[in-house]
Amino acid sequence: xxxxxxxxxxxxxxxxxxxxxxxxxxxxxxxxxxxxxxxxxxxxxxxxxxxxxxxxxxxxxxxxxxxxxxxxxxxxxxxxxxxxxxxxxxxxxxxxxxxxxxxxxx
Amino acid sequence: xxxxxxxxxxxxxxxxxxxxxxxxxxxxxxxxxxxxxxxxxxxxxxxxxxxxxxxxxxxxxxxxxxxxxxxxxxxxxxxxxxxxxxxxxxxxxxxxxxxxxxxxxxxxxxxxxxxxxxxxxx
Lengths: 106, 122
Fold this sequence. Notes:
Distance between the termini of chain B: 40 Å
Number of helices of chain B: 0
Order of helices and strands of chain A: EEEEEEEEEEE
Helix content of chain A: under 10%
Strand content of chain B: over 45%
Oligomer: heterodimer
Radius of gyration of chain B: 13 Å
Shape of chain A: globular
Number of strands of chain B: 11
Helix content of chain B: under 10%
Number of strands of chain A: 11
Largest sheet of chain B: 7 strands, mixed
Largest interface: A-B, 20 and 18 residues
Shape of chain B: globular
Strand content of chain A: over 45%
Largest sheet of chain A: 7 strands, mixed
């Protein structure tokens, strides 16, 4: 199995800050990497696919970069609505997920 | 809009069985591969199983192989997960997940249901 490692596990920032989450794969997944947002008590929602393609309806403050084994998700200006846990997931082979990054407002 | 509504969760004893269902609407169910993914607060998200659009192919995570069976009824727009020989480590919220294409190689999870909680405890 491909192991996915996210950092940090928790992130606390102020409204308007730029925040970045990192996801590393144990072997190359090319660009077969998705990011999900999960608000408390809700289902995960797809934000980004193929490492950098924003899903329709997702605010443009979200962006993704990377390929191979290292990826990032950035939020350019953190908003209260962004409080959630974010997960990366590779779909190069049978799917595996990162451990999640909980984003809080300071 | 796409809706996936899971049901069938509950509290069961180790060694027993449970069947989960997922009612799908808002898209052409018979054209999409479907997955089950589970979430345990201690272990995070774990992919469980996939079935192709026509039900002819299935694939399972090693942790459930031989105990769980994924199936679908395209005439009823419903996905199932038959879970046998349940273990305490199967305790999780189980999500029904739609993919963006039809075969078992389709692994982009574009819509998720709200999940149903399965608790395995003596």
